[in-house]
Amino acid sequence: MSTVKLFSLTALFTLCTHTLANGIPVVVSPGINVSSEPNVTAHIPSCTNLTNNAPSPYCYTKLQETAFLTNWNLTSPELCAPTELWSTCFLRSAYGKPGPNCTTLTNDTKTCEQYNCTSLSLSTALCPEPTASNSTNDTTADTAEKWYAAWNAYALQHHISAWSAALSANTSTKAILAAVNPRTPNTATSLLTTLIPKYGLNTSTDADAALVKLLKVPTVTPEPAYGNVRVRGESSTLTGVQWQLALEMRMRQVLDLAMGRFDEFLGAVKGGAYSARGLASVANLTTSLMDD
User: Fold this and answer.
1) Mean per-residue pLDDT, 43-71
2) Are 270 and 64 in contact (CB under 8 A)?
3) pTM, whole model, 2 decimals?
4) Could you read off the pLDDT of 220-250 as tens digits, one per residue?
5) What are phi and psi of 104, to 5 degrees?
6) 163 three-state secondary structure
7) What is the pLDDT of residue 5?
8) Cα separation of 84 and 74, whole Å?
């Protein structure tokens, strides 16, 4: 998997640094509150240590990541080309790449490479996993905020791609067809919002819920609906393979939505649903779909 060091170059934008608050009660495990149990403070991750503890859903809140992203979206439009995806613009800025026209003295193709997290791929260099350099074990809050924003773009793209790949496996058709409601018309969205909660893993409960929320955002045009009714004398049902193609297309649409519309992206990552590692692997999801 391709990785990119996030802090090797100076970011192209300057934002206010949020001071990390002290003494705010936070629940680190069920029934344990830091304010009343001082001995458990060692279990709280250091949100400016990007080498060992990151990412952490706790740090998404502690770093006020929603405020950081919102502020960036409101104050940095001049950095983006008119047709540039907001996620591409942010990653390019955070990684210190040239402007949207990518004009350099040497016209180095690698330097001018733009970021794009809309591909349903688990190994795309255009949507890299952000890595922390050895010097970021105690970085600034501003640097940590940029790192978390880049991580959330990567994790969201990776999570949707993992689900798409698992649903495309030959062994997943049985579970897909079992989710088809025989009494009412079905859409790709209705199947996905049934399959994801049912076959999702315990490690990605919050991320799966955020993905289902994204899927429920109304589409520009009505989705095709299929069921066990007869239309002009012909069955309107789909085969397992046909459903797989429809589900893949819908996943591609929702990925485009999240990476192209800031409000939808923020709605998905808000609260730290994607501020974690190991959300769900293709292999584990495929096994879950197969074990029904």
Assistant:
1) 84
2) no
3) 0.79
4) 888 888 875 444 444 457 899 999 999 999 9
5) -130, 165
6) helix
7) 45
8) 15
